[in-house]
Amino acid sequence: MKKMLLLLLTAMMLVTACGVRENQSQTTTQSTTTAQSTTTTVSQATETIAEPDLQELYDIIINSVEFPYMMEQSEELLPDNILNNDNVEEYIVEVSAITVFFNEVILIKAVNGKTNEVYKVVQERQESLLSKIDLYPGQQQSIASSVAGKQGSIVYFICHENALAAEAELLKHI
């Protein structure tokens, strides 16, 4: 009986993971198409500086180090008032799916002149995670290695055991 239940749960997890992976690759294809059209538009304009696309930056972070499967965080569960509509133009918040490690990527494009306010909120998110004591050792390691930063209008938070490597790769593209 226990073996049957274990096999059933394993099969359900595999089906779910395959379905979500397929959806993620479709999203990546759509963002690549959008990025190509944006590049065309920018190259047609003279002396226009292209702002980095958040989805491209997210893909750079995820591909720079080995992240587990990540999923979009729903707005109802977004941490610590991370989004203030007056300060945020665009955002991506992704968290790791079922794992003993805690991984989170927050990318925010701040409204002009609001980068410092958004960065302060992201730092508060990092501090609130660091103060939690009821975590697994793997989660504590990921959170202790997390980095928060800002570059131009982009504010980021990377929670991963190799967050510094992911940040270094991100900064090459901003």
Query: Secondary-structure element sequence?
Result: HHEEEHHEEH
Tell me roughly what share of residues is in helical segments: 40-55%
Structural class: alpha+beta
Shape: globular
Looking at how many chains there are and whether they match, the oligomeric state comes to: single chain
Strand order of the largest sheet: 1-2-3-5-4
Q: Return the average pLDDT rounded to an integer.
A: 78
Major beta sheet summary: 5 strands, antiparallel
Number of helices: 5
How many domains, as an integer?
Answer: 2
Low-confidence stretches: 25-29, 31-48
How many angstroms does the end-to-end distance come to? 54 Å
| Rg (CA only) | 18 Å
Count every beta strand, where a strand is a DSSP E run of 2 or more residues: 5
* Beta-strand share of residues: 15-25%
Which properties best describe this structure?
single chain, 174 residues, alpha+beta, 5-stranded antiparallel beta sheet, 5 helices, 5 strands
What does this structure look like?
The chain is an alpha+beta fold. It has two domains: 1-49; 51-171, no CATH class. It is 50% helix and 17% strand. It has helices at 2-44, 54-64, 115-130, 137-144, 163-171, and strands at residues 70-72, 88-96, 104-110, 147-151, 154-159. Strands 1-2-3-5-4 form a five-stranded antiparallel β-sheet, sandwiched between helices.
